[in-house]
Amino acid sequence: MNRTTVSLIAGTAALAAVTGFATLSSPQAAGTAGTATELPVERTSLLCPSPSTSDIAETSYTSFTPVTKDAGGDGKAALQAAAEKSDDKSKGKSKGKGKKADKPVLAPVEPGKPATGDTSGGDAPALVGTAEGKFAPGWTVQETTQVAAGSGRGLQGVNCSAPDTEFWFPGVSTAADRTDYVHLTNPDDSAAVVDIELYGKDGALDSTLGEGITVAPHSSDPILLSTLTEEKQENLTVHVNVRSGRVGAAVQALDDKLGGDWLAASTDPSGSLVLPGIPKDATAVRLVAFTPGDSDADLKVQLASPSGLITPAGNETLHVKAGMTASADLGDVTRGEAGSLVLTSTDASAPVVAALRVVRGKGDDQETAFIPATRPVGARATVADNSAKGTTLSLTAPKGAATVKVTASAGSEGGEAVSKTFTLKAGTTQNVEAPVPTGLKGTYALTVERVSGGPVYGARTLAATEDGVPGFTIQTLPDDRGMVAVPEADQDLSVLQK
């Protein structure tokens, strides 16, 4: 790919816009090589969707920022309610001008210690959050909801996400027993305009209602997918494309019989994907994949087990036609062991997106969660709202052996941080015995740092029982993007472009 040389002034201004920190110095002689310095970000945003419409829903929020070297000495973080939800969920037109609430719903006190809040009932709003200074690098917010009965009953969890301009959601559905919403949240002072496209087994679904959806400033809209198309399909892929502005996006998938959960966006289309942390007692696993390019994709399907990479019998490959959604039922693929799915396209020019629908339990006690393809842990990844019981941390090293450091933070109500180091063999997945804070009171966060070796992917499973109904939810652990490369004054910024 050709790289265009960017002027120092323009490049530094762009970095300042993204990170809130960049220093402008006089450029040196043209062509002088330099190095980029990794510095903590100084400002970040997170968006939490409206948790539930159920009157018996109980939702908790947990905010956590890991202690980061060289982070700012002051700053703040706060989550505020977004504007009132739209009455017209099919068209996504928000009421009013989306005036921001004045009182924060949740305001963390210090890095290194989780802050918690909760709400009940079905009228809890979406939240718009900003963190600055020492609270910004690696800021993580978890939204966890328990619903005792009704469609989507069980445990629903989602990591509040940063705003962006494009999202892919393989694994949604408009089947009769599913009620799926795409939640769009706009954090900015101007309206965002969004297109929602749906792709089924035969290609794009005819729909004009998903075009030009306006999301008012500081507001959130849940868009019911079944109002965008008359077709009833079990497996669909949703593409959220933002024409102007930016939004946070997440899918809430509710099933009449199998409970429900949040489906986070898949990582960007790629020829190599990892879907980590399939529960060892999963009774049914469904893979859904989509390629947005013009070429078909043939995917090699492998399971990273505790003993290495294996090929699931009868599901060695998956053919994905260009512009069409493909699926495969993998059954109880993990067979009582920890596992992660590794997908490799035989043609690098045919990148894909993918997600798993995972079912645990039998009969009336079945519950559902989703695992999207995710980015690697990178330098550091964090997940909040862990408990002494019911938390499972799964780590996989698909390409080479790796060493990781796992830190349990102080508890939200007391306890001291504890760290452990683990070595992962190449091609394996391990459910590691994650540390628990000494003298734990309340909930805590887990931070995973890659110390050495190949790329590491991770996921955390939370399990809980509400009124006798078992529930679970899974969140992946992508890099927290708490650090940014800032070039020295004498560096040609073209080397930072990809």
What does this structure look like?
It is a single chain. By secondary structure, this protein is an all-beta fold. Helix content is 2%, strand content 48%. It contains one helix and 37 strands.
Short description:
With 498 residues, the chain is mainly beta. The chain is built from one helix and 37 strands. The chain has one helix spanning 8-19; strands at residues 36-40, 43-48, 58-64, 77-81, 115-120, 127-132, 140-147, 154-159, 166-172, 178-186, 192-200, 203-204, 213-215, 219-224, 236-244, 248-255, 259-263, 272-278, 284-290, 297-305, 308-310, 317-320, 325-331, 339-345, 353-360, 367-372, 381-386, 391-397, 402-408, 414-416, 418-424, 428-432, 438-441, 444-453, 457-466, 469-476, 483-487.
Topology:
Layout: H1 8-19, E1 36-40, E2 43-48, E3 58-64, E4 77-81, E5 115-120, E6 127-132, E7 140-147, E8 154-159, E9 166-172, E10 178-186, E11 192-200, E12 203-204, E13 213-215, E14 219-224, E15 236-244, E16 248-255, E17 259-263, E18 272-278, E19 284-290, E20 297-305, E21 308-310, E22 317-320, E23 325-331, E24 339-345, E25 353-360, E26 367-372, E27 381-386, E28 391-397, E29 402-408, E30 414-416, E31 418-424, E32 428-432, E33 438-441, E34 444-453, E35 457-466, E36 469-476, E37 483-487
Antiparallel strand pairs: 1-37, 2-6, 3-5, 3-7, 4-6, 7-8, 9-15, 10-14, 10-16, 11-12, 11-13, 11-15, 16-17, 18-24, 19-23, 19-25, 20-21, 20-22, 20-24, 25-26, 27-34, 28-32, 28-35, 29-31, 29-34, 30-33, 35-36
